[in-house]
C-alpha cells in the first residue's frame, strides 16, 4: 500500500477502484435514470413526478370527445 498518499487506489481485497468507476460510467443507466425511464415509458402507480403528460389537457380532450359521441 502506498503510505505516502494513504491509499493506492485499491481496496483491501485488491479491487482497482478507478477501474470499477470507469466500468460503472460505461455500464448504462443509473438506478434513478432507469426508474425515470420506466416511469415515463411504462406508466404505473406513483410515477406522476416522472411523467411529461399534461393530464389536464388529456381530461379536456376526453371530455370533448365524449360530448361529440
From TrEMBL:
Q: Which domain of life is it from?
A: Bacteria
In its UniProt entry, what is this protein called?
Answer: Gamma-type small acid-soluble spore protein
Report the source organism. Answer: Pullulanibacillus camelliae
For this protein's source organism, the top of the classification is: Bacteria, Bacillati, Bacillota, Bacilli, Bacillales
Amino acid at each position: 500500500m502506498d503510505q505516502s498518499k494513504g491509499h493506492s487506489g485499491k481496496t483491501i481485497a485488491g479491487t482497482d477502484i478507478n477501474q470499477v468507476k470507469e466500468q460503472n460510467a460505461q455500464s448504462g443507466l443509473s438506478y434513478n435514470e432507469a426508474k425515470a425511464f420506466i416511469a415515463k415509458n411504462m406508466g404505473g402507480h406513483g410515477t406522476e413526478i416522472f411523467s411529461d403528460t399534461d393530464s389536464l389537457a388529456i381530461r379536456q380532450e376526453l371530455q370533448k370527445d365524449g360530448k361529440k359521441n
